[in-house]
Hints:
two-stranded antiparallel ribbon
Amino acid sequence: MRSYGQYCSVARALDVVGDRWTLLIVRELLARGPSRYTDLRSGLPGIATNLLADRLREMEAVGLVDREDAPPPVATTLFRLTQRGTALSSVISELGRWGVPLMSDYQPEDAFRGQWLRLPVGMFLADHEPDQAPSSIQIRAEDQTVTLDVAAGKISLRLGADPNADATITGPPPRILSLFSGRLALVDAEEQDVKVTGSRKAVQRILPRGEEAGLRLSSTVENKTS
């Protein structure tokens, strides 16, 4: 591990997590939980298999990651974050928040994975009607499908489709992000390649509302225009 050789907590932290791919591995393990090596490779398009193996060994050596043998039927090694690794959650969240204005630069060749919606879901969406019955919403972006479960004031994301979902949102990733962040109202999003089927009420239940949307975006917009 290379070191900046500086007696500073920022420099010391970057000695540990500053290498390319390290924080994205943390992102994947936060989004997925304990994961197989093949799951991590799938969630990190562009990483060489030997580099992923090297990074996991380095992260294990510094106490960010450990591994466990999963019982049948999985019967394979799972990688998971330690308590020290999980403590990076706030770092990942703040990096994601800081990067929101950069998401306007979208290229068709950009890779996308459904679990990457977990961060904007946590940042922008809320259950505005916690007394209502639980509901679920499918999100289909490119070839990725995830499901949002909404109940008792909380929203959680799981990978995969739900044929019994109350509503389905289909569209390109940048439009879905704009809808979730409050930059696009639902009616405007539907004029820009976003399709909603099923219960519109279930969708409107979670979207940013009125001034709330502006407050959540104010800091990122200021950063973008300053």
